[in-house]
Design goal:
- The chain contains 8 helices and 19 strands.
- The protein has helices at 2-14, 47-59, 110-119, 135-141, 183-186, 204-221, 241-247, 276-294; strands at residues 19-25, 37-43, 65-67, 73-74, 80-87, 94-96, 102-105, 122-123, 144-145, 148-149, 154-161, 166-171, 190-197, 200-201, 228-231, 254-255, 258-260, 267-270, 303-304.
- The chain has a 5-stranded antiparallel β-sheet, covered by helices on one side. It has a 4-stranded mixed β-sheet with strand order 1-2-5-3, with helices on one face.
- The longest helix has 19 residues, at 276-294.
- The two termini are 14 Å apart.
Amino acid sequence: MENLEKAIAEIKEKMPELELRENEVMCRHCSFKIGGPARAYAVPKDEEELEKICGYLHEHHTAPMILGNGSNILFPDEGLKDLFIISTDKLTELRLEGDGSIYAGAGVSLAKLASFAQQNGLAGLEFASGIPGSLGGGCIMNAGAYGGELKQCVEGVKCYKLKEQKLVTLSNEECRFEYRDSLFKQSGDYVVVAVRLRLQNGSREEIAKRIRELNEKRREKQPLDMPSAGSAFKRPEGNFAAALIDEAGLKGFSVGGAQVSEKHAGFVVNTGNACSHDVCELLKQVEEKVYETSGVNIEPEVIILPPDYTKEC
């Protein structure tokens, strides 16, 4: 794509210190361990570098895809030759504010954030301690587990608006958080930069105990030793995807190297040599068989990117 190539050339010229990798293999940057090369992969060291990158891309009518830990995404085997990816890996500022709120960069892991809250006697993020994603990605998906979700904790989100090329701060209400959804997922115009969280005061010991209990549940029930993207399907209203998949007799069902986990039917795992086509076909067949046996439609929670995926202003 001509615009993207011009943008890459200008960024390389104007930002020689930027960590920029061309044709970076994406299986290195997602929990599924699947995916071919993306045309460009940049790792800004701070918010200022991120803004500059977005500015140059905007001048060439191109928008970036923002990537956190890649814990809920499936990249195509063919790669993404028309895509510029910006990683939030280094946006990891984390501090306790004077008013008792937490300010955290988009690249802070949810596990580290939950631990930081516990160390400061702040309760409400225990559910996030075992979610293998970043705060930015968590806000996009309104990540949650065990009855908790980020919607309950977020006070405001600092974002970069791509079309207007400016920083804005959105309130919790303006973020339009819903089950596994948000304004950021619905609109590609926002880059989550940092988040302010408001929690409740609590006992450090009790918070730590709750974190240990939830993490033990995860270890007992989830296939944490195998590459996956977490829960493969959204929870259908009034039911549970894992139960429906189990009732359909699909535990252990596989297509190529992709398999419905034998430990937890709600997870699709990479047994070692899965490709994106295996995962897609497996998800499709699971959806069909669950509908045949229960009459319930289940919808993938995993974000599946096609090879021709691109973003333009």
